[in-house]
Amino acid sequence: MACGEFSLIARYFDRVSSSRRDVETGIGDDCALLTIAEKQVLAISTDTLVSGIHFLPDIDPRDLGYKALAVNLSDLAAMGADPAWLTLAITLPEVDESWLEAFSDSLFEQLDYYDMQLIGGDTTRGPLAMTLGIHGLVPAGRALKRSGARPGDWIYVTGTPGDSAAGLAILQDRLAVKEATHSAYLKKRHLRPTPRILHGQALRDLASSAIDLSDGLISDLGHILKASECGARIDLDALPYSTALKENVSAERALQWALSGGEDYELCFTVPEMNRGALDVAIGNLGIPFTCIGQVGPESEGLQFLQNGKPVTLDLKGYDHFAPL
Amino acid sequence: MACGEFSLIARYFDRVSSSRRDVETGIGDDCALLTIAEKQVLAISTDTLVSGIHFLPDIDPRDLGYKALAVNLSDLAAMGADPAWLTLAITLPEVDESWLEAFSDSLFEQLDYYDMQLIGGDTTRGPLAMTLGIHGLVPAGRALKRSGARPGDWIYVTGTPGDSAAGLAILQDRLAVKEATHSAYLKKRHLRPTPRILHGQALRDLASSAIDLSDGLISDLGHILKASECGARIDLDALPYSTALKENVSAERALQWALSGGEDYELCFTVPEMNRGALDVAIGNLGIPFTCIGQVGPESEGLQFLQNGKPVTLDLKGYDHFAPL
């Protein structure tokens, strides 16, 4: 029988370390077979990561194994879904066993952490890239959609957006950060973003809409506003910054990265006035800051920015793979 | 807001031509949301197609749109599943609008034909490649697995394996076929293989195991035998050939391509003796020949080939992306 490809897959990806009860058939047949509990809705998302575009070509395979999954988990978090199954289609230029071992060890460590199971995939030869298909479950009727924001709702963001862009700049020698702890923190925010799964689950009955910050706050909040047919006012003075970011870049650069740096994988969500108290209780103990940065308005007002209480005009674009640079 | 990538996706892939009732949220949120009927099991498969490896770089985008889906549907067919949803992650070297229009038109034509819905995906810049995630539904307990073959079961194959390899050889100028109808037929079997969805559905209660022929009969039957812990005897004289193949290549070449040419996307399946009569009724009216080519035996006998009633030794390998050529 065929040997090379299949033994490669078998060795690194056909692990049974985590075995979920809802997986009737996992890797090894034409399809995986999955059962879904009553009153659960299936949430599916797909992301592709291409070497040189979505990650640096010399990235540590352990960081890549972590980030590839984290980026996809972030989409589940934004829907308030519980992680369940992963498919991994990976294209490799060559069979590098030490690379594969480091990558797959890191991936499975994260799969185990989230009680997820790898249920299938494909391995092909070609330029390094991968497409992950992530599957989660959410109680019927309780998913967090982009379309539920209403005028008057308050706009929140978790964590401190902009850190990931700073971390990337350090990795690419575009930014020098003297203090080692600051440098390590910012790089980690880029290489190992935390998917806000717990926040998503806690927000199910509290937030009116949610999205994760992959392209940048302006671009991603824009998706909420478009889907909800709303406008918004953002108070730029309220944007939360990490100490590491504040102390190492100008205020202008920090603002630019917070609004359009991308890859923070924090959640941006809207909460009706009547749920603000419950919100503080529900996510206040999760150990991550969350900050009110503005308010949803009518669609006719568009997206407005305030600084020192006055409207300002910004010329910032969200990160876009096909946009002219 | 971001413009290039998102308007590109919106224009070519965000169509609502088919709208399934089980799709609560399709394209346009962080995840798609899907509902699954009671007593249905979810079947999931993933395939990557890379330019120059899985399809010729100069392939007509309409053929590519067809084949990318057909190859994935074939995995559902092999499980006896009903097609439901597709995710498409596509990597493009450039935005070529006429290419995108032809590719997506062809893809959606097939999606509509199978009452499927595109529920998500990703578009990135890079060397031409795509990963499809296909989702189907099968009544609980009735999926066709690879592991159910038992000694004594009869081995069948649909259609005429080997045609796809001949079609590829014509397209690559390695084979000259004078008669235009033969040439067109063989090329079509390579470019536009028919996923045997109807056969898979009809086989649910009749076949003890099934697989689709993507790598070649030897390799793929081998997967059934390994999963079922069985051996088999194949009568090489029983292998079905198309007229187009028989009349244009040597008997030896026809045999080689039928056994290891790959990409036929026919079904190979096993049927217990007691179901053979019902089989003739169930798939006899589907218009595609199906042929008994051998019998499952005990694992200790391995995979044996008979020619003129006598055992013969073959040195053929299944198609393997990473195997040395």
From TrEMBL, chains A, B:
SUPFAM superfamilies: PurM C-terminal domain-like, PurM N-terminal domain-like. It catalyses: thiamine phosphate + ATP = thiamine diphosphate + ADP. It comes from the Bacteria. Pfam families: AIRS, AIRS_C. It is an enzyme of class 2 (transferase). Mg(2+) 5 binds at residue 215. ATP binds at residues 121-122, 146, 214. Mg(2+) 1 binds at residues 46-47, 122. Mg(2+) 4 binds at residues 30, 45, 75. Its EC number is 2.7.4.16. Residues 150-299 form the PurM-like C-terminal domain. Residues 28-137 form the PurM-like N-terminal domain. InterPro entries: PurM-like_C_dom (IPR010918), PurM-like_C_sf (IPR036676), PurM-like_N (IPR016188), PurM-like_N_sf (IPR036921), ThiL-like (IPR006283). Keywords: ATP-binding, Kinase, Magnesium, Metal-binding, Nucleotide-binding, Thiamine biosynthesis, Transferase. One of its GO terms (molecular function) is ATP binding. Substrate binds at residues 54, 263, 319. One of its GO terms (biological process) is thiamine biosynthetic process. Catalyzes the ATP-dependent phosphorylation of thiamine-monophosphate (TMP) to form thiamine-pyrophosphate (TPP), the active form of vitamin B1. Belongs to the thiamine-monophosphate kinase family. HAMAP family: TMP_kinase. Reaction mechanism of ThiL seems to utilize a direct, inline transfer of the gamma-phosphate of ATP to TMP rather than a phosphorylated enzyme intermediate. This is Thiamine-monophosphate kinase. It comes from Buttiauxella agrestis ATCC 33320.
